[in-house]
């Protein structure tokens, strides 16, 4: 296939990382890949072998974006550069304006997403396109040679990682629960990894890591924990959960999030099912999000402490993660694109 990839390329944002790995592995599968890098792209993250698109005809054109920009710019101009134009959508705001839904329905017969969470939100909003789910992956070369058996046996170790101040990630819920109920509990230890620490609250058992880590240090930190805990209100990617699983760290995740795409069948994983939908003013319109209850978070931590849930085989988690390497999920993407071309 000849493929145009339209999006951001970098090594620090989810969409930039996705663009890099999917195009790199599409090349390895023998496909021709043209790229249209957006403003903010880092040229060194565009895989060698990709060609800057200068009007060449292609079989299919992919734009990695959110639904609010899915039809903007020259990607969907009628320039005849591709037989099919298919957005790869990420979406966690929950609510689309009626005019945007109509725009998508009138122009796009096919969509790609990276999770059932995004697919379900689009359907909930009335999107009629045929939506294909292509799971995300992780780079197995980064986590190889990490000792997955360094985990403690006598206490439960949880880790949260991500942007600390973001409402979408739900870290405030986790910190409040930990401070209220587990601050002096020697059965459990919480690690928080972030490049910024903007919460004044702290607890005796809370370990805050703020320094920038290289990739090996990052995976060693993930490998210390038994569970990556993700109380996210909105999560349309969830790649960190796969990175954690690659070093034998299982997952605690909310019912309505991208983590469920691969967390459901992950060994020793636990889904937090109690919660409710809420709406807030997101600044650019209303946002629908899923709020895990504090009681659910507390009950989950207590259950894991009581059952000595940390005493599991991390190799089982690691073996499961190996089904989601970038090379394997890119084959799913390539097969999906081929099915679109064949109708």
Structural description of this entry:
This protein is α/β, with parallel strands linked by helices and 343 residues long. The chain is built from eleven helices and 15 strands. Strands 3-2-1-4-5-6-7 form a seven-stranded parallel sheet. Helix 1 (14-28) crosses helix 11 and helix 5 (171-181) packs across helix 9. The longest helix has 16 residues, at 326-341. The relative contact order is 0.14.
Distance between the termini: 15 Å
Structural class category:
alpha/beta
Q: Helical region count?
A: 11
The fraction of residues in strands falls at: 15-25%
Shape: globular
Whole-angstrom Rg: 21 Å
Low-confidence stretches: none
The main pleated sheet reads as: 7 strands, parallel
Helix content: 25-40%
Strand order of the largest sheet: 3-2-1-4-5-6-7
Q: Kindly report the average pLDDT value.
A: 89
Q: How many individual β-strands?
A: 15
Q: What letter string, H or E per element, gives the SSE order? A: EHEEEEHEHEHEHEEHEHEHEEEHHH
């Amino acid at each position: 296939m000849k493929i145009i990839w339209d999006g951001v390329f970098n090594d620090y944002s989810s969409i930039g990382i996705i663009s890099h790995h999917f195009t790199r592995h599409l090349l390895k599968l023998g496909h021709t890949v043209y790229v249209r890098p957006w403003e903010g792209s880092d040229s060194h993250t565009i895989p060698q072998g990709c060609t800057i698109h200068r009007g060449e005809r292609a079989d299919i054109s992919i734009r990695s974006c959110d639904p609010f920009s899915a039809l903007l710019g020259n990607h969907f101009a009628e320039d005849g550069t591709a037989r099919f134009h298919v957005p790869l959508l990420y979406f966690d705001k929950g609510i689309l304006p009626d005019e945007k839904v109509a725009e998508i329905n009138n122009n796009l017969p096919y969509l790609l997403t990276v999770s059932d969470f995004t697919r379900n939100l689009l359907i909930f909003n009335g999107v009629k396109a045929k939506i294909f789910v292509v799971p995300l992956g992780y780079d197995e070369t980064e986590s190889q040679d990490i000792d997955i058996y360094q985990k403690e046996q006598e206490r439960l170790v949880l880790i949260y990682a991500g942007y600390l101040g973001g409402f979408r990630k739900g870290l405030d819920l986790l910190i409040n629960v930990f401070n209220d109920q587990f601050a002096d509990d020697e059965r459990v230890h919480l690690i928080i990894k972030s490049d910024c620490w903007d919460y004044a609250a702290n607890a005796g058992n809370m370990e805050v890591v703020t320094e920038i880590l290289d990739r090996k240090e990052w995976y060693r930190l993930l490998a210390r924990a038994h569970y990556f805990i993700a109380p996210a209100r909105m999560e349309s990617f969830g790649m960190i959960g796969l990175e954690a699983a690659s070093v034998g760290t299982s997952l605690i995740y909310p019912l309505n999030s991208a983590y469920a795409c691969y967390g459901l069948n992950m060994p020793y994983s636990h889904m937090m099912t109690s919660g409710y939908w809420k709406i807030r003013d997101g600044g650019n319109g209303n946002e629908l999000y899923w709020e895990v209850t504090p009681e659910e978070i507390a009950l989950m931590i207590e259950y894991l402490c009581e059952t000595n849930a940390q005493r599991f085989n991390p190799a089982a988690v690691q073996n499961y993660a190996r089904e989601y390497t970038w090379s394997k999920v890119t084959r799913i993407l390539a097969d999906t694109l081929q099915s679109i071309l064949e109708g």
